[in-house]
Amino acid sequence: MNDVTIIPWRNAARDHMHAATLAELHGRHGTEKVSFNYRWEHVTTVVTLALRLAELTGADAETVEAAAWLHDVCKFSDGEHHPQAGAAYARAFLPTTDFPPGKIDAVAAAIADHMGLWREEPLTVLESQVLWDADKLAKIGLTAVFHWTGGALAGERMHTLERLIHRAQANDWLPKTVASMHTAPARKAAEQRLAAYHALYEALNKELTGADLL
């Protein structure tokens, strides 16, 4: 009888995602040794938010956590098609672990559904809603400020505070994202995060221009 090693799914998913972020860094910058790994910071934040939303909404925690770990595993390699590629990846990868087989389809569906910064029509499956909301919450508020700033500064291109502020304030899609939130906790948090986001950049701009000198 052959011994079969059962791989703990959570550790394996984390490892696969981390390896994908290192491949992205190498592809973007020619090295893995940069000052800030944006993709890894984003994904770990989404995992935290997805688990919290699952707790608040009653969504299946294992499904949303696995989907959160793997939702961007094909982001760099497949670009706009990464939700579909990520879903296929999950279907192939999770059966090699101890993840519950009956939940794999739900994980893949949630990953496939997470595309878009806003939605014209809401998603209908709770686990897909939770992943979508968690992914977009990580792109709103002070979390986004530090993630995007860290990611920008990790590259070789020179940036100024003026340029970073301009880029941040040009994100006119943010209100659409807030309006597209599915779950009540995410909607409330998104509104608060967007207000904090705008307040921070407005205060920073005042400092840099001396408008706070009265």
- The number of domains: 1
Name of the top-level CATH class: Mainly Alpha
Tell me the β content. under 5%
Q: If you consult CATH, what is the topology? A: Hypothetical protein af1432
Classify the secondary structure makeup into a structural class: mainly alpha
Task: Based on the coordinates given, report the CATH architecture.
Answer: Orthogonal Bundle
Query: Uncertain regions: pLDDT < 50 for 5+ in a row?
Result: none
Largest sheet: none
Estimate the mean pLDDT confidence.
93
Describe the structure.
Pfam families: HD. This is HD domain-containing protein. Residues 39-138 form the HD domain. The protein has 214 residues and is mainly alpha-helical. The chain has a single domain (9-209), classed as Hypothetical protein af1432 (Orthogonal Bundle), CATH 1.10.3210.10. 66% of the residues lie in helices and 0% in strands. It contains eleven helices and no strands. The chain has helices spanning 9-29, 38-57, 61-70, 75-78, 82-93, 104-112, 126-137, 142-154, 161-169, 174-179, 184-209. Helix 2 packs antiparallel against helix 8 (142-154), helix 7 (126-137) runs parallel beside helix 11 (184-209) and helix 9 packs antiparallel against helix 11 (184-209). The longest helix has 26 residues, at 184-209. The protein starts with 8 loop residues before the first helix and ends in a 5-residue tail after the last helix.
Key attributes of the depicted protein:
11 helices, 0% strand, 214 residues, mainly alpha, globular, single chain, Hypothetical protein af1432
